[in-house]
Amino acid sequence: MVKLIALGEILVQFNALAVGPLRHINYFEKHIAGSEANYCIAFIKQGNECGIIARVGDDEFGYNIIEWLRGQGVDVSGIKVDPESFTGIYFVQRSHPVPNRSSMLYFRKGSAGSRLSPEDVSENYIKSADIVHSSGITLAISDTARDAVFRAFSLAKIRSFDTNIRLRLWSAEKAKSEIMRLLNEFKPDFLITDPDDSKIIIGESDPEKALKILSNYSRIVVMKLGARGAMVYSDGSIYFSPGYQVQVEDVIGAGDALGGTFLSLYLKGFNVKKALDYSIVASTLNVMIRGDQENLPSTKEIEEFLAEMKK
Amino acid sequence: MVKLIALGEILVQFNALAVGPLRHINYFEKHIAGSEANYCIAFIKQGNECGIIARVGDDEFGYNIIEWLRGQGVDVSGIKVDPESFTGIYFVQRSHPVPNRSSMLYFRKGSAGSRLSPEDVSENYIKSADIVHSSGITLAISDTARDAVFRAFSLAKIRSFDTNIRLRLWSAEKAKSEIMRLLNEFKPDFLITDPDDSKIIIGESDPEKALKILSNYSRIVVMKLGARGAMVYSDGSIYFSPGYQVQVEDVIGAGDALGGTFLSLYLKGFNVKKALDYSIVASTLNVMIRGDQENLPSTKEIEEFLAEMKK
Amino acid sequence: MVKLIALGEILVQFNALAVGPLRHINYFEKHIAGSEANYCIAFIKQGNECGIIARVGDDEFGYNIIEWLRGQGVDVSGIKVDPESFTGIYFVQRSHPVPNRSSMLYFRKGSAGSRLSPEDVSENYIKSADIVHSSGITLAISDTARDAVFRAFSLAKIRSFDTNIRLRLWSAEKAKSEIMRLLNEFKPDFLITDPDDSKIIIGESDPEKALKILSNYSRIVVMKLGARGAMVYSDGSIYFSPGYQVQVEDVIGAGDALGGTFLSLYLKGFNVKKALDYSIVASTLNVMIRGDQENLPSTKEIEEFLAEMKK
Amino acid sequence: MVKLIALGEILVQFNALAVGPLRHINYFEKHIAGSEANYCIAFIKQGNECGIIARVGDDEFGYNIIEWLRGQGVDVSGIKVDPESFTGIYFVQRSHPVPNRSSMLYFRKGSAGSRLSPEDVSENYIKSADIVHSSGITLAISDTARDAVFRAFSLAKIRSFDTNIRLRLWSAEKAKSEIMRLLNEFKPDFLITDPDDSKIIIGESDPEKALKILSNYSRIVVMKLGARGAMVYSDGSIYFSPGYQVQVEDVIGAGDALGGTFLSLYLKGFNVKKALDYSIVASTLNVMIRGDQENLPSTKEIEEFLAEMKK
Amino acid sequence: MVKLIALGEILVQFNALAVGPLRHINYFEKHIAGSEANYCIAFIKQGNECGIIARVGDDEFGYNIIEWLRGQGVDVSGIKVDPESFTGIYFVQRSHPVPNRSSMLYFRKGSAGSRLSPEDVSENYIKSADIVHSSGITLAISDTARDAVFRAFSLAKIRSFDTNIRLRLWSAEKAKSEIMRLLNEFKPDFLITDPDDSKIIIGESDPEKALKILSNYSRIVVMKLGARGAMVYSDGSIYFSPGYQVQVEDVIGAGDALGGTFLSLYLKGFNVKKALDYSIVASTLNVMIRGDQENLPSTKEIEEFLAEMKK
Amino acid sequence: MVKLIALGEILVQFNALAVGPLRHINYFEKHIAGSEANYCIAFIKQGNECGIIARVGDDEFGYNIIEWLRGQGVDVSGIKVDPESFTGIYFVQRSHPVPNRSSMLYFRKGSAGSRLSPEDVSENYIKSADIVHSSGITLAISDTARDAVFRAFSLAKIRSFDTNIRLRLWSAEKAKSEIMRLLNEFKPDFLITDPDDSKIIIGESDPEKALKILSNYSRIVVMKLGARGAMVYSDGSIYFSPGYQVQVEDVIGAGDALGGTFLSLYLKGFNVKKALDYSIVASTLNVMIRGDQENLPSTKEIEEFLAEMKK
User: Fold this and answer.
1) Which parts of the sequence belong to the Carbohydrate kinase PfkB domain (chains A, B, C, D, E, F) (predicted)?
2) Which domain CATH number covers A155?
C-alpha cells in the first residue's frame, strides 16, 4: 500500500435539498467536504492509505469532520483542533442560474482551516508518506497555509498538485503567481488542472496545447474536461478518455474524485490510460449525488461499471 | 421602471413530492401560483414593477398569498380579501401518465378568485400602470372576472394577453368566442399563445401560419413551443429561439415565465429577438423545480446562463 | 361477527407536517378520513365487519379512498363513484392558536360525498347489517344526505348516532332541530356525544346531567370528555373511565376511535364498562399520530396497553 | 373479464431515498413488491382480475402486504399467514456503482414466502382462473415453492412463465435445469424472458435467435430489452417495439410491468403488436418512480401517453 | 396604529431537524431570525406597524431576509444591502445536552449586520416612529452598532430595551458597563430582562428584587421567567402571569415574542396586566415550533387561546 | 485511560420515522445499534477507550457498522467481516400499542453477528483490556457466541455483565440457566439488570430485594428502573438516583447508555453515587432521539445538564 498525505481545509457543506436560488431553499443536507479530503477518500477507495494535515475548530462541526474522516479510514492524526477559531462551512446552490452547475457561499474567512501553518507540518509525518498532495485552494486561503504546503512539498518524496483556482478566494493574478512559483520550485510529479485554470496560469485554455506547456512543469498532467471526460499527458503523448452522460445532482467534487482516483490507481501500478479510464468513472458517479465523498467507488465497483458499459 | 398590472386568480398549489398518480402520493409541497402572478414575478425579476388585481379568501391560504407576493415585491394593494368565499387551490400530478407532463386537480369553483369583478378595477389604479395583462384563465373562471378584464383593458394604455386555454374551465367553443371577442375589441399590443390554443381560437396549429393570422389581432405575438423553444412575430417577420434540454421536475408555469420575462425585457428596451432569447432561459429554469416562481431568474442571472452556454 | 353499516362522507385529509398556522406550513401529509370511516375501521379492528354507504368523486382522491378502505378490510360495495362531482378534502392546522387543538379548512361544499342521497341506500344492503351508524356531520352536509340517514335508520335493526356537530357546516339551531328530530323519531340504541354538543342539543353541558337527559332518547349514551376520558350511561347508572396523558400529535378523530371501538366491543359482548375502558385506549393512541385511522388498535393491542399500564 | 392466478413471494421493499451505496443512505421508503405481485397489479390495471397464492409472516409486514394488495384490487384469499416464519424483505441500492441500475440486498432466506408449498395450491382455486403465472424466482426460493408451481401449472388451463433468473438465489446451472424442466413439461402458452436469462437457459443472448429457439417451448415469447424496448415472437414472426427515454428513478419491476400488462391486454383481445406497444408504456412509467406498482397505468392512461407521443 | 422602529441584526437561522448534537444532525431547516426582527413581527401581529434599521449582505441570504420581512409586513426601507460583507447566520442545536434548551453556533463575526452604524440611522426615519427598540445583542455586535442604538435612542420619543445578554458576543463585564451606560443615559420607558441578565447588570437574580432595582431605570420593567411565566413592574406594583406547559420544540425567540407582543398591546391601550397575560400566550406558542416568527399569534388568536384555557 | 472490550452483535437499526404500527410507516431512518456497541460508545464518551469483538457480514451494512464505529472512536480491529453470512438488522416500531414503548422486529437469525465464536477471542487482545463486558443478548444469539463470552470472561481482569434478556431470542428458562451459570462461574465485578430480568433469573422483581440477592454474585449491581431512575448496590448499601421527565422519542438503548456511562465513570474514579447520578443523564438524553448512540453525552455535557437542573 502507498500512503498519501494531503494538506488542505476540510469544510462542512450544506447542500440545498432542491434546485434553485438559496433564498427559496428551506432544507439543507450536511456533508463533509474540501478538495483534499475528497482526494483522500478517493485515494483510499482504491486500496491505498491517506492522512490529512489540517485544522478544524473546537466545535461540533470540527468533531463531525474528524469522526467522519476517521470512519472513512483517513489517518486523522495530523488534524489539529484549533481552539481559537471555528470550522469553515459553505452552502451549495444547485442549477441556478445555470443548470447542472453549482455555486458556493462560503463562511470560511478566518476559519481554523485557514490557520493551517508550517508548524503543523511534522517532518516525520511527511516522511512516513509516499506522496504529498495539495491544491490551489490551500495556497489561497492564507499565507500560513500556503507556507505549510511549501514546507510539506520541500520534505516530500513525490508531489501532486491540483490547481483548483477559486476566484472567490483570490484574484487571478495572485493565483497565477503563487501557483507558478510552486510549479517552478517543485515541478510536482503530478499536476491536475482544467482549461479555465490553465487559462489563468499559462494563458492557454485549449486542452492539448495547455497540456504540452504544462508538461514542462510536471511529468504527468491531467486535464479535467467536465462532462466531456479528461486527458492525461505522459511521456510525450496525450490520452483522452470520454465522459459518461448521467443524471446530474451536484457537480461539485467531480474533479477531486477524478484526481484522487487517478493518483491512487497510478501509484498502484496502473498505466496512465487505464488509471484515467477508471478515474472518469469515479467522477461520473460523483455528480449523481449531493455530497462529494459518499458515492466514490472502489476499484472493484469501477470495474463493475465498466463491465456494464461494455454490454 | 415600467409598471404592469395583472388581473387573475392567485392560487395555492400543492405539488406532489414524487412522480406518479396522486392516489399514491403521500406528501405535497405548497407553492403560490396562478398564471398572472407568475407573469408578475417574472416581470419584476427584470427590474420592473408589478401589481395584481385579484381576490383571495379570508383564510390562511389567502394571507399566505398576500404575504408571499408582497415579499416578492409585488404591489398587493389591489388584492382584496373576500370574506364570503375561499382561496382556490389545486394539486399537481407529475409525469403520470405522460412523462414530463403535469396535470392539475382544481378546487377553485366558486373561489374568491373567481369572484373578481369590474368593481375591483379602480380606474386610478389602472391608470397608474404602463401596461395591463390578463389571460384566458381569467376570462374562463367567471363572467364577472371576464368583465373585470374587459373593463381593465378598456382603461389600459398598453395591453397584453395570454390565451392560456384550460379546457377544464370552459369548452373550446366558449374559449374561442370569448377570446376572439377580446382580440377583436382590443387588439392587444402583446399576444402570447401556443399551437394548441391557436388551433382552438383560429383553427390553425402550425406555429408560423398561426403567427401570421394572429398578427392581424396583435402587434407582437409570442408562440410558446414548450421544450422546443418559442417564436415571436413582430413587424412582419418571425424569429425562432430554440429551447434548452434540462432535467424536468414540473413544466407548469414555464409559459408564464417566458411571457412575463419577455414583456418586461421588451418594455425595458430589448428588441424582440433578444427579449425572446432571454425569456427562453426563464422558462428553462422554471421547469427544473416544483413551483412556478422560485426559480425565475433576474436579467443578470439570465446573462450568466447564456454566457455559460456559449462556452 | 357483527356487521355495521355507516353512512357519511369520506374525505382526504392533508395534515400539516409541522405545528403552526397553515400559511407557514410547506409540507402536507395525506390521509383518508371522515368520521364514519374512522368508526368503521375502529369497528373492524375489534374483529367485526363494516361497510360504508358513501359517494366519492371520479378522481384520484376518490379512488384513493376506495383502495385504502378496501385494503383496511372495509366493504366498499356501497361506495358509489359520482362522475358529476369531486371528492371532498380538508387541511388540518395543528396547535395554533391553541396547543394540542387542531382546526380544519374544508373543501367539501358540493362534493360528491355531500351528494349522498336516499337512492344510495339499498334496502337489502341495510338489512344485511346488524347495526347502522351515522353522525351529525352527515345530517349537516346536505338535505339529501340527511334523508339518506333517515331512510337507513328506518330500515335498520339497531341504530347508533354520534352528534358530531361541526359549526362550520350548519348553525347551532339547525343542528339542534335536525338532531332532535332524529333522536325523537328513532331513539337510537347508541348515542355518542360530548359536552359541547349536548349544550347545543339539550342545553346542558354538565356530563352527568346531560347523560341523564339524553338517556330519554337512547338506551346507551357515551359522553366523550377529551383527554379527561369518557362516561357511559346504561341501565340507569353512569360509569366514568379516565384518560391517559400522552404526547399529542393531532386530536382529530379521537372521538370516532372511541365510539367505533366501544360499539364493536359492546356488540361482541363486552359490558359497557369494559367496552369503555378499552375504547379510551383507542382514542389515546389515536391522538399520538397525524391521521385518524393508522394507529387504531386491535383488541389484543388494547390489552397489551392495559397490561403495561397495570405494571 | 379474465382471471389470472399468480404464485410467488411477495416482499416488502425498502428503497434507498437517495442514489449511492447503502452504507451512506440514511432514509428508506417502504413499498410492496415481488415479481408476481407486480404482474398481478399490472394485469388488474388493464381491467382484468388477479389472485395470488403466497405465504406471508404473522407480522406487521405480512399484514401490510395483504392490506396493500387487497386495496389494489387483488384477490388475497389465496395468501396464507404462516405463523412459523417471517415476511421476506429487501433493500434497493440505486445507481451505484452503475448509473440507472439497482441492486438488491435480500432478507428472505427461510421466509414465509419461501415456504410456499403444493398444499397451498387448491385445485378449485386454480380452476377458477383462466390463466396461471409464475416465474423463475418462485422456482428458486425453495423446493416446495417450485413444487407448488409445478402443481399449479399441471392444473392450469393457460400457463405463463417469466424466467426472471436471480443469481443470488440459485446457480446458473440450477436455474437452467429447473426452468428447462418446466418448459419441457408444460410448454407454457406465454414465456417472458430477456437476453441474459436466455443466455443461461438456452445459451443464446441474441434476441432474435433466442426467440426462435424459445418458440419451440412456448407459443408466444416476449423478449424484454430494457430501455431499448421489447420483442415478441408469435405465429412465426417477430415484432419489435422500441422503448422511450425518460428520467430513471429505479428500474426494478419494469419487466414485470411489461409482462403483466402484455398478458392482460392480449387476453382481452389485443393483438400481440398492440399489446406489446402498450406494455412498453407500462414499463417506461415504472422506471420513473421508486416502487414497482404505484406508477402502473390503466389502459386508458397508456392511451393518453401514446396520444401525447404522437403529437 | 403605533409604529415601532427596531435596530438590530437580522440573521438566517439553520435549525436542526432533530434533537441532539449538531455533528449527528443531517438536515437543517432555514428560518429568518434575530431578536429585533422577532420583536417587530410580534409587534405587527397585534395590529401595529414596525420598521427595522439593519444591514444585510449582498447575497442570497440577505435578499431572503428582506423578502421574508417585507412579506410579513415589516417596513424594510431601513434595511441596507451592504456590498462589503455577508449576511450573518447561525445554527441551532436542540435539547443537547440540556433537554428543551437550545444552543447557538454563530457565523456572524464581521457580518453586514454587525456593520450597522450611526450613519444608517436617519433622523427623519426615527422621527416617523412612535417608539424605538433595541437590545443588548445590538450593543454587543460592534461599536458602530452600539453607537447606532445610542443615536437612535437620542432621537426617539419612546424607548424600549431588551437586555438580551449573549455571553458568546461579549463578556459579562462589558455587557454590564454598556447596558448600564444606556440605562443611565436614556432611562428607557420599557425595559425587558430576565434573572440571568439582571444578575449580570445589577447583581440581583431574584425577580421581585431585581424588578424593584430596575424600576429606577425604567418606568415599565418586564421580567421574563421562561416556562414559569413573566412579571411586570409598573407604577410601584408587580404583577405575575404564569406560563403554560406545552410540548417544546425550540425555546429560542420566546422572550422576543413576549416582549414584542407586550409592547404592541400596551401601546394599543391594554393595561400592563392584560398585556402581560396576552404576551405569555405568544411566547408559549413560540416554543412549540422551530423558527422564531412563524407561530406568533394575532390578538384575536391569543384570545382564542385564552378562551380555550378558561373552558 | 481505561480500556473496555465488549463482545456482542452490532446491528443496523431501521427506526420508524413516525409513531404507529409498522404496516403504516412509510419511511425508516437508519442507525447503528446493538447493546454492546451502545455500551462502548457511552464508555468512550467519558474519556476512556473501547474495542468490540464481533462479526459483521461482507455487505454494505457490515461496512456501515465498521465505518460508523471507527468514526466514533471505537477500536474496530476485533470486528471480523464474515463472508459467509449477513449483517443482522431490525426495525423499531414506536408507541404502538403502548405509548413511549418501542418494539423490535429482528432479521438476525443466522446473521454474521450470531456466528461470533471463541476463535474470535484473541487472548492477547483481551489481555490488552482492563475490563471485558457482554450481555444476555450475546449469550442468547448462539451457542458459539455464548462460548465466546465465557472464553473472554475467563481471560478477563475485570468483568461486567448486563442481563438484557430478550424473550424473542430465548425462553425465560434458557435465559435463567445460562445467565446463572455465568454469574456462578465468574461472579462478575459489575452486574447491570432491571426488575423484569431479575424476576426471571432470581424470581424477584422488587428492586431492593433483588439487589440484595444479586449482591451475592457481583460486587456492584446496577438496577435500571426506566423513567423512574436507577439504583446501585455497593458495599452493602443501596443508592437510588431518580430519573428526569422528558419528551420521549424512542426508549431503546437507554439502559445501555446508563450502564456504559456508569462503568466508564466508576473506572475513572467516580464513586458509585456520582457515577449513577451522571449515568441517569445519559439515559435521559438517549430517549429523546431515535437511534441509541447519537445523543450520548460526554462527562462535560452531563455536568452542563446537571448544572441546569440545579438552577
Assistant:
1) 3-297
2) 3.40.1190.20
